[in-house]
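Work package 3, deliverable 3.1, input record:
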Amino acid sequence: GQSLEQPSEVTAVEGAIVQINCTYQTSGFYGLSWYQQHDGGAPTFLSYNALDGLEETGRFSSFLSRSDSYGYLLLQELQMKDSASYFCAVRATSGTYKYIFGTGTRLKVLA
Amino acid sequence: NAGVTQTPKFQVLKTGQSMTLQCAQDMNHNSMYWYRQDPGMGLRLIYYSASEGTTDKGEVPNGYNVSRLNKREFSLRLESAAPSQTSVYFCASSGAGSQADTQYFGPGTRLTVL
């Protein structure tokens, strides 16, 4: 079957750096996305990796290794507002837009 | 721009009732999606529409039907609601080319089936 695995919960303090990992097992692979979702809110897009390497967007960076079927989201200079759930998602099929989402990592940022 | 809008925001149904969830986007996006999210879970794709006039099944299509009414609107219908369909439903859309993998989500519809 197709699946994405993420840690269920991560805790860190304000100002720290945290890494949220995602490993995937899918029949195909056409890119890894990351979304943030605050409690009661809608998911919002953070980043996308189609190729190996690091993509940086402000305090957030995302990394992909296709050979290892692995990626991570790196959050730097953590702020209280970063407390949310983070989901990785894979587009597994070429020519379609069928996405598979992970079950999410709940990040708690402590003061 | 309103982005992606969904109606209603909340709905309570009795088992066996039917209803249609409405979704509209004003970003001129080609692709639209319907997801469900159960407590503590990720999003699961119900149906998607890659372009106006086309729809395709996702991971969990049973019990649902969809209509891509035009480029802006994509509705989700529950013909005979069941308690297992209690969930939060999100509509999303994405553009073309380099924007194809950036999905924009609506605020969600919180559905309870008694």
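The interface with chain A takes residues 31, 33, 35, 40-45, 48, 50, 56, 58-59, 90, 92, 94, 100-108 of chain B (CB under 8 Å).
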